[in-house]
Design a protein that fits this description.
The chain folds into 2 domains: 47 residues; 131 residues, MucB/RseB, C-terminal domain (Phosphorylase Kinase, domain 1). The protein is 29% helix and 25% strand. The protein has a 7-stranded antiparallel sheet with strand order 2-3-4-8-7-6-5, with helices on both faces. The protein has a two-stranded antiparallel sheet with strand order 1-9. A hairpin with a 2-residue loop joins strand 7 and strand 8. It is elongated, with a radius of gyration of 45 Å.
Length: 224
């Protein structure tokens, strides 16, 4: 029964709590223990935390990355220190020069494994039939010196001219029945030269006379 002394409650109307009623809901953010709730992190604090986490990860991964790099690089460094010579294959250049040269091409054959070819150059790749053809091969010798062989039907080719310009005569040398002109280059190295069917042959380098003689005596007609 409705109390005649109290107005009726309309639907949706909140009834104020009495002094002795339940404690109203606290929306101020206080906890049940009466302590203020922790404030949500600000965007700046989140960014600082992200930077801190990334920095920790980098510091942790840094030594591992460094160790991996050392493990990968060390064998290569050790190999390069123990054997710095990089060999090349002269087969293709010899074949191309032989196909286009207007003279019988002579090439070194039968050299020991201690002779390691390190460079090869020919202009035959850009030459047409009848054009001068030059072949130049360099070796790292068993005596750990440099020796080069040049053959060309162009006496002004830089591979010849750079060595023989300014060279002085130093007699002759008989090598396997062939007479070579012996010269001393402007660099003080020995140069052995001779002509063969329209081509100039040159053997030179920092190697001693014995090794240069070995190279000069190894020349044979090119055969595929």
């Amino acid at each position: 029964m409705t109390d005649p002394g109290r107005p009726a409650q309309h639907p949706g109307e909140q009834v104020p709590s009495s002094p002795s009623g339940a404690v109203p809901h606290d929306t101020s953010g206080a906890t049940a223990a009466g302590e203020p709730a922790a404030a949500p992190p600000t965007s700046s604090s989140v960014q600082r935390m992200q930077r801190f986490t990334a920095a920790n990860m980098l510091r942790s991964l840094g030594p591992l990355v460094l160790i991996c790099l050392v493990l990968v690089a060390f064998p290569a460094l050790r190999a390069s220190r123990s054997d710095p010579v990089r060999e090349v294959d002269t087969t293709s250049s010899e074949r191309t020069a032989a196909e286009l040269a207007s003279y019988p091409l002579l090439v070194p054959r039968g050299l020991s494994d201690g002779w390691r070819p390190t460079s090869v150059r020919t202009n035959a790749g850009s030459a047409s039939a009848g054009d001068p053809v030059t072949l130049q091969i360099g070796w790292f010798t068993p005596g750990e010196e440099y020796a080069a062989y040049v053959v060309s039907d162009d006496p002004r080719d830089p591979a010849l001219d750079d060595v023989l310009a300014g060279a002085t005569d130093a007699g002759t040398a008989d090598i396997d029945g062939q007479t070579w002109q012996r010269r001393t280059t402007a660099r003080g190295e020995t140069a052995l030269t001779r002509d063969d069917e329209g081509a100039t042959l040159l053997v030179t380098g920092s190697a001693g006379d014995d090794e240069l003689g070995t190279l000069a005596g190894s020349l044979e007609p090119y055969a595929p």
